């Protein structure tokens, strides 16, 4: 008798690595139910109704606290679902640990058993194709500190690649803006600062004088991908940093 498989549902989206190929897709997980502590415990109790809820909850809490303490003590954990251990990021300058620059993280890696289950114990259902008519895929800059993601420099050139990001149309909102996330101040890139404006690439000089920090870069256009302009504008948004980029931590399933 064939083993019953778990059902997964995915949606196809454009492959951002091949913006000019309209037949190339990647799979995207559909939004699913998110289970917290109580949800996980309820599922466990449904499989073994004879367990006492209070006892199971206490065991869960002790297990989570113990694993957290072990990881923060430098131990490496190997479970049936994952292995986890401490990792560090940032350059340690002059042998002194900088708590703003240097970060402690916990890296999680799925176990071989879970990887085998992902390959053999699931059935994939493709529900539909979702077109992403416009998006920004990557950011590069002439003056980027090594290893920092999505980081640009004020007054310096930057290149943004994506799909259908060419600026076109007469609507006053067409163009590129940078909104300071902390202050809300918005700066628009002058048209004479652009060196490239194509379907898959925008190259321009970041406005000089912008303060270091996190920004929302917004590209607004009436470009449709063809010679016909859209009646209304559409936009793509990308987070960028002027100055030092913020590190993006790995997701922690226990927080």
What does this entry look like structurally?
The protein is an alpha+beta fold and 255 residues long. The chain folds into 2 domains: 6-129, HU Protein, Chain A (Irregular), CATH 4.10.520.10; 133-242, Coagulation Factor XIII, Chain A, domain 1 (Distorted Sandwich). Helices cover 16% and strands 36% of the residues. The protein has helices at residues 37-47, 53-72, 112-120; strands at 6-14, 25-29, 77-78, 82-89, 103-110, 122-130, 135-141, 151-152, 157-163, 175-180, 186-188, 194-197, 201-205, 213-221, 234-242. The strands form 4 sheets. Strands 8-15-14-10-11 form a 5-stranded mixed beta sheet, with no helix packed on it. Helix 1 (37-47) packs across helix 2 (53-72). The two termini are 40 Å apart.
Lay out the secondary structure.
Layout: E1 6-14, E2 25-29, H1 37-47, H2 53-72, E3 77-78, E4 82-89, E5 103-110, H3 112-120, E6 122-130, E7 135-141, E8 151-152, E9 157-163, E10 175-180, E11 186-188, E12 194-197, E13 201-205, E14 213-221, E15 234-242
Helix pairs in contact: 1-2
Percent helix: 10-25%
Main beta-sheet annotation: 5 strands, mixed
Beta percentage is: 35-45%
Full CATH superfamily name of the largest domain: IHF-like DNA-binding proteins
> Helix count, per DSSP?
3
Strand order of the largest sheet: 8-15-14-10-11
Which parts are unreliable, with pLDDT below 50 for 5 consecutive residues or more? 143-147, 247-255
Please state the CA-atom Rg, rounded to the nearest Å: 24 Å
What is the first-to-last residue Cα distance? 40 Å
How many domains comprise the coordinates?
2
CATH topology of the largest domain: HU Protein, Chain A
Number of strands: 15
- What is the average per-residue confidence, as pLDDT, rounded to a whole number? 86
What sort of overall outline do the alpha carbons produce when their principal axes are compared?
Answer: extended
- SSE string: EEHHEEEHEEEEEEEEEE
Protein structure class: alpha+beta
């Amino acid at each position: 008798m064939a083993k019953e498989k778990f059902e997964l549902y995915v949606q196809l989206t454009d492959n951002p690595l091949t913006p000019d190929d309209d037949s190339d897709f990647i799979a995207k997980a559909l939004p699913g139910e998110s289970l917290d502590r109580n949800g996980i415990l309820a599922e466990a109790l449904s499989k073994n109704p004879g367990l006492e809820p209070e006892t199971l909850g206490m065991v869960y809490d002790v297990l989570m606290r113990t694993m957290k303490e072990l990881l923060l003590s430098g131990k490496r954990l190997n479970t049936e679902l994952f292995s986890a251990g401490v990792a560090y990021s940032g350059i340690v300058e002059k042998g002194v640990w900088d708590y703003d620059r240097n970060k402690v993280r916990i890296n999680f890696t799925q176990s071989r058993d879970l990887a085998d289950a992902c390959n053999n114990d699931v059935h994939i259902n493709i529900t539909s194709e979702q077109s992403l008519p416009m998006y920004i895929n990557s950011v590069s800059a002439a003056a980027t500190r090594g290893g920092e993601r999505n980081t640009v420099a004020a007054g310096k050139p930057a290149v943004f690649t994506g799909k259908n990001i060419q600026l076109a149309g007469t609507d006053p909102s067409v163009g590129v803006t940078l909104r300071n996330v902390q202050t809300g101040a918005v700066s628009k890139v002058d048209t004479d600062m652009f060196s490239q404006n194509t379907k898959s690439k925008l190259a321009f000089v970041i406005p000089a004088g912008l303060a270091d920090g996190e920004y929302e870069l917004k590209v607004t256009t009436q470009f449709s991908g063809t010679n016909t302009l859209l009646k209304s504008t559409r936009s793509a948004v990308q987070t960028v940093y002027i100055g030092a980029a913020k590190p993006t931590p790995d997701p922690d399933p226990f927080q």
